[in-house]
Amino acid sequence: MNNVDTRQVGRDSLFLLAQVRIAGRDEPVRVKVRNLSAGGMMAEGDARVARGALVTVELRNIGDVEGSVAWVQGNRFGIAFVDEIDPKLARASGVAGNSDFSARNPIPAKAHDKGTPRKI
Which end of the chain is more exposed for a tag (fewer CB within 10 A), N or C? Predict the structure, then answer.
């Protein structure tokens, strides 16, 4: 992102879960996405990150997004994305990107066999 202050741009307040991989660490951390905009997001969780840390966030329907930690306040932190995203994609139903999940087609129910009535 450039040096222009864009924190007043529209952002979606929502509740999603995402995986954050922090440069230099082996395991990703699951976080709650509290708000999301084209240029960044606010995450909440036990990630223990420092300002300036390089991260990769796996967002539903978008996939991996690279960024850096812009601020940290308690268990919440802001991530500035390297490239802008379409935040509305993360709200859409269904799953795409690099997720392990895939959408399934419904399986039709079998017709009920009426058989012989039971005496009560």
Answer: C
